[in-house]
Design a protein that fits this description.
Layout: E1 6-12, H1 14-31, E2 38-44, H2 48-57, E3 63-73, E4 82-87, E5 97-105, H3 109-119, E6 125-133, E7 146-150, E8 156-157, E9 173-178
Parallel strand pairs: 2-3, 2-5, 5-6, 6-7
Antiparallel strand pairs: 1-9, 3-4, 8-9
Bound molecules: inosinic acid.
Inosinic acid is lined by residues 46, 72, 102-110, 155-156, 161.
Amino acid sequence: MSERPYVIDEMISAKSIAARVEDLSRKIKDEFPKGERIVLVGLLRGSFIFIADLVRELGDRDVEVDFLEASSYGNSTESSREVRILKDLRGEIEGRNVLVVEDIVDTGYTLSHVIHLLSARKPKKLKTIALLDKPTRREVDFKADWIGFEIPDEFVVGYGIDYAQCNRNLPFIGKVRFI
Ligand code: IMP
């Protein structure tokens, strides 16, 4: 990762994120029947703050939390990317209501691979939510069920999302600008 100096320009405020997380949790509640447990699957590591806020908005629901870590390797000479599972779920999802929680959909390779993998385990319902979507970057046909914000093709950090493992602790989403 580059050592070039950069500044971070705020793109989405903490207040806007909180309001959107509240909206999204209402949509999730409408989708999953009351009284049925929802297994939220956070994709490590970028989704950890988003999933923490989402589960608290779902405080009146029966919720379980699990995590999965996937890593995508790009190769500019090939049209496809390999997605590897670095850490699998601890629990079984067969016959269960599952919501996969991601930070950003970029090319779409990670989520489409994860959904393919998890759907083979025969969940009762499998839905996806991503805080951010960069539709202009898409390389595979993938659409999350719910998106927090559509953003342009910019490198962003904050609210769990990193640049070289830094800036995950910023309470807002900011754009990285090299100086
Ligand atoms: P995809 O497989 O290309 O959709 O990759 C999605 C993953 O790439 C996200 O979960 C992030 O980890 C990473 N990513 C994509 N865009 C950004 C960004 O702007 N900032 C930080 N990480 C990003």
